Amino acid sequence: MTMINGFTATDAERLSATERALIERRERTLGPAYRLFYEHPLHIVRGEGVWLYDADGKRYLDAYNNVASIGHCHPQVVNALHAQAQVLNTHTRYLHEGILDYAEKLLATFPPALNQVMFTCTGSEANDLALRIARQHTGGTGLIVTELAYHGVTEQIAAASPSLGAGVPLGDFVRTVRAPDAYRLGAENVARLFAEDVRAAIDDLRRCGIKPAALLLDGIFASDGVLADPAGFMQQAVTVAREEGLLYIADEVQSGFGRTGEHMWGFERHGLQPDIVTLGKPMGNGQPIAAAVVRAEVLEAFGRNARYFNTFGGNPVSCAAANAVLEVIQGQDLRSNCAAIGAYFKAGLQGLAERYPLIGDVRGAGLFLGVELVTDRASKAPATDATRQVVNGLRERGVLISSAGPMANILKIRPQLIFEREHADLFVHTLEAVLRDLG
């Protein structure tokens, strides 16, 4: 399967001998499953703050990698890792203050009812765990996700991740619903349509003899096209699900930890309180740590009846890194920065939309933004080829993003939470140069 914004063998002739040799080694040793970004892949050797540096010393403004959300190689995280690694790194079957200190701080950022947490290493594991907990609690197996959702790569969760493509078939227990696309469906319609689609999916599961267990939704629908608005539109769908006995699982792997600006968690924009929340990517700023935050009564049956242990989940070194990340987000008030710079950045992109008809829509929340490119604003026909050219044109000019959506025509922008006005200005000016070159 060809990956969105991916390197293919047809692009190899433009590479240097050194780059071709690295790719040949990579394919020989790692096999065909590993993909590379961009028509001209990057050989990155160093990161600092909002910048990545390649082997030739060229720097790139990183407006995509939300894993290092407080900046690449943040000294507070590096120091925390180093200090704890010098002392102890083992598993959770011994008593240790580190995991408890962090768990208490993390839980304090959630509504009081979400009062217990289980740690894993990846968001995929967290979503897999959440599904197991939901099934144990409800006695059901069915799961509802959006049409192009990505929730992870474990067998069960990959089977509920349509964005992985035809090579990874959906599970019989999965039903998909249309993504809530306000640009194409109308902002006034998305809440009603989303709720109707969820009800229809529940009915279809039951017709097939499958008891539904959960509704699994992103805080911002990233793979579906960076769909965020209008705030509050999820409420009707979640109400329908709960009335029918389903749990609501909020996947905050991409939208969590302050990325939306006004709130710590994406579900808060919709005035909701989930039954389970899954966390990952930016949690350790690159150190592998993830989690499922759960209401105690929902976790009870799984915790008592199902044997579960994650060797590395919640280890002291990972918890030290995650604790440092949370301290930076809170201590430097990065949520406020994210809201302010996100609004400034979005306004700059909207200014480009006034001058370039290729831009059909600018959307998002905080520093999670999407720019939809269309060949015609009236028909809203996706400008897939132009999007590919823009993404690669930005890369050549030293700015990194990717694309998303069913037709890969949405610029997916997720810079570090420490982004400043000068970085937003650089991005907007560079994007305008690329658009100008496209004519």
Topology:
Blueprint: H1 17-30, E1 44-48, E2 51-54, E3 59-62, H2 75-85, H3 97-107, E4 114-120, H4 123-138, E5 142-146, H5 155-158, E6 174-177, H6 182-185, H7 190-207, E7 212-218, H8 235-243, E8 247-251, E9 276-279, E10 290-295, H9 296-305, H10 316-331, H11 334-355, E11 359-365, E12 368-376, E13 381-382, H12 384-396, E14 399-400, E15 402-404, E16 410-413, H13 421-438
Parallel strand pairs: 3-14, 5-6, 5-7, 7-8, 8-9
Antiparallel strand pairs: 1-2, 2-3, 4-10, 9-10, 11-12, 12-13, 12-16, 15-16
Helix pairs in contact: 2-10, 3-10, 4-9, 7-8, 11-13, 12-13
InterPro entries: Aminotrans_3, Aminotrans_3_PPA_site
Cofactor: pyridoxal 5'-phosphate
Protein name: Aspartate aminotransferase family protein
Structure in words:
The chain contains 13 helices and 16 strands. With 439 residues, it is of the alpha/beta class. Strand 5 (142-146), helix 5 and strand 6 form a beta-alpha-beta unit. Helix 4 (123-138) crosses helix 9. The longest helix is centred in the C-terminal third of the chain and has 22 residues, at 334-355. It is globular and about 60 Å long.
